[in-house]
């Protein structure tokens, strides 16, 4: 990060950008901050608990749970990199963000989005192997393979998004420095540039098509094959049981892709819509999945649901020991 920031300092970008929260609702920012604060708190606690449960229990060192731990880590970092600017606006009305910090935030938001998309594909592949080739499941998805898939997902996200801040910083910004959201997004920043942004726009489009476009296609193909296999199973109970193992992942996919499609439609066709609409859609796309994913998996996954009270008991006992080490527990 130090190298990146020192390079960005030499660019022609302005000293800072102005972040926007909810246009026209500035008088009620104090009230708006409450649901946003609860969302980030839920995201940190929920994803942290999922990570803690999976990493501390050897019985959960299985492909499905390892992928879930990676997804929880990704969602945790999503909230970590978006919460300072979002809560700064609604808590303190602090709308200015240094341009170098803005570009770094932009890099992390977009790279984590690509990584999460890849993890959703990996989880779809996990369900495909488990349902369509159950006898080969342990042979195909070993812990080593799962680790390599996770590393490949992270490297893909970082490598694809890495050029974007450097392509963005080279523009002169003579227009307004007012952004449209509570955080920095690539398409929002280049909109303010006083230069030809064709390269950035093409690179962003190709990157989206090669990542989320292909990922969504692989997920659809996986579930098409899964449905075909499930329908060939004799007995309704067996079919329901097979499909029930996919419920959490389907919810995670819908939470990720439906707001993304909605945001794209609003940006493309909603020119006469309220300025609040794209802001709300972007907030749903970026902030809601990290909140809902751990809730869904905690409720629907029996192994995780049963372990969470044990984690709370463990943390509480250690907290009491720390506060009063001489007292019996």
From TrEMBL:
MF terms in GO: G protein-coupled receptor activity; olfactory receptor activity
Isomerase among keywords: no
Any GO CC annotation of this UniProt entry: plasma membrane
Domain of life: Eukaryota
Cell membrane keyword on record: yes
Main subcellular location of this protein, as a coarse class: membrane
GO BP: cellular response to lipid
Stored Gene3D superfamilies: Rhodopsin 7-helix transmembrane proteins
Keywords for this protein: Cell membrane, G-protein coupled receptor, Membrane, Olfaction, Receptor, Sensory transduction, Transducer, Transmembrane, Transmembrane helix
Pfam families: 7tm_4
Membrane protein topology class: Multi-pass membrane protein
Domain G-protein coupled receptors family 1 profile: from-to ranges: 46-297
InterPro entries, sorted: GPCR_Rhodpsn, GPCR_Rhodpsn_7TM, Olfact_rcpt, OR51/52/56-like
Family that this chain belongs to: Belongs to the G-protein coupled receptor 1 family.
Name this polypeptide is given: Olfactory receptor
Lineage: Eukaryota, Metazoa, Chordata, Craniata, Vertebrata
